[in-house]
Amino acid sequence: MDGLELVSSNKIYGGFQKVYSHESSELKCKMNFSIYLPPQAEGGDTKLPVIFYLSGLTCTEQNFISKSGFQRYAAEHGIVVVGPDTSPRGVKIQGDDKSWDFGISAGFYLDASKEPWSSNYRMGSYLNKELYDLIISAFGNVVDPARIGIMGHSMGGHGALISVLRNPGQYKSVSAFAPICNPSTCPWGVKAFTGYLGENKNEWKEWDATELVKKYNGPPLTLFLDQGAADKFYIEKQLQPEILVEACRSVGVPVILNVRDGYDHLYYYISTFIAEHFDFHAKILKA
Amino acid sequence: MDGLELVSSNKIYGGFQKVYSHESSELKCKMNFSIYLPPQAEGGDTKLPVIFYLSGLTCTEQNFISKSGFQRYAAEHGIVVVGPDTSPRGVKIQGDDKSWDFGISAGFYLDASKEPWSSNYRMGSYLNKELYDLIISAFGNVVDPARIGIMGHSMGGHGALISVLRNPGQYKSVSAFAPICNPSTCPWGVKAFTGYLGENKNEWKEWDATELVKKYNGPPLTLFLDQGAADKFYIEKQLQPEILVEACRSVGVPVILNVRDGYDHLYYYISTFIAEHFDFHAKILKA
């Protein structure tokens, strides 16, 4: 099927959690992605909505599918869920394994413009063009290209937000757990943007949700943001949802920010609120 | 608190998933265990039921708490959930790390009688005496000693079944996912029993659920067994629930066996049916 190789398939909540690998032309390496096919996908006579889920720093496509418990809600709503990996794999660029917040498993869902990263670290185009198109073509009997949403966690929350803002209309719904909201002004983001994009801060604005929302003029969109109040990265100002909320309000883009008392940054937190996020997406994608 | 050291605490579904470590006198080493305190535990003025959960081969106390999603159901029912590790840790016995199905993370919830295992590999007494008593004393303001159940997966399903059958009345409810039902006659069990107990097969009978149920004469008990039909270990006859069911029927012990079409041996399977198991235990423990 379109160069896809099945890595694993496990029944869960009546559907199948699958992992495939494929050769990516954008990233010039072999990549894994996960896809959950809910029970409604069987037979293939109904086209279902899709949600892309983007993981955070240090993750692969495995964390979300084994720890969040999302399959229960995807099965209830009849939604296909796709999860890419978080960076190119196995390309061996000098320095790519030196830190947990840059290089391997830290692709930041952008297209690098600086050497030596620019030829492989193209997660933005990989996600929004190559994988997006691949899902629509390879699973064309199951997925409805007109009803695709996106969500993510931490670095992946940033990825979800910039993907929806940079590609108006391509995703109909968006939500984020503990997203990095203004990477140009937090330590993780400054490190990543300096490394992947260089010193030109005008270029940074093209990959920063807080900057992008200020010039968004696509179809109506509500940003659904979630944040644990006991998240140490929130407290250390890596995430800064308030800055994004202020930017949204300044330009009239609807935004919801749920701050969850006592919750931290981990999948324990995500698993508690993943049902609410699926409800939010389903309301839009199944309207 | 009684020599307990807090390793981690994370909010999930309104309660807290905690991990503690303590020095075990039975095992002569430091052990971790998990405890989920549901939201109903706050304040400490209601005593709640408890379920012990025993993990399978290769696991620690982490797998179940991060992959099964049980916390949603423990929170809904108001049940405390305790999960021990699967073997002594850090005791360094020759050969303890040579295979994944014997030694480290493969304690089989029994008391070894054969050297060199007999001084540390006492998971039976650790679970049913030391940890059981520790939970009741250290969490005495929260747990109700009269309403304790037990469940487990694979090797841990075996552990749950033998614990309830060897200690009549100590656990009021029992269920098992893909349990090793007749270890005396399957490759995993023969290897473990030979190693921990030696060649005397009369001794094996004391740690084999199928043998123990034939002479059970404790309080009324229903065994709730669950099995994925696509589980390769089931197909290879490591698990053999039908043999246990036959033994139960021969002596009139009520038994339920749910065979789940298409499901395998992993946490994807467990997470799909964990809600049913909590419903089963809650019906008994909250009657």
TrEMBL record, chains A, B:
Pfam families linked: Esterase
Enzyme Commission number(s) of this protein: 3.1.2.12
A Gene Ontology term for the protein's cellular component: cytosol
Reactions mediated catalytically: S-formylglutathione + H2O = formate + glutathione + H(+)
Segments traversing the membrane: none
Location(s), subcellular: Cytoplasm
Main location: cytoplasm
Gene3D superfamilies: alpha/beta hydrolase
Stored SUPFAM superfamilies: alpha/beta-Hydrolases (SSF53474)
Catalytic residues (UniProt): S154, D231, H265
InterPro entries xref list: AB_hydrolase_fold, Esterase-like, S-formylglutathione_hydrol
Record's keyword terms, sorted: Cytoplasm, Hydrolase, Serine esterase
Tagged with keyword Hydrolase: yes
A molecular function GO annotation: S-formylglutathione hydrolase activity
Family the entry assigns: Belongs to the esterase D family.
Record's function text: Serine hydrolase involved in the detoxification of formaldehyde.
NCBIfam families: fghA_ester_D
Protein name in the entry: S-formylglutathione hydrolase
Organism: Leptidea sinapis
Organismal lineage: Eukaryota, Metazoa, Ecdysozoa, Arthropoda, Hexapoda
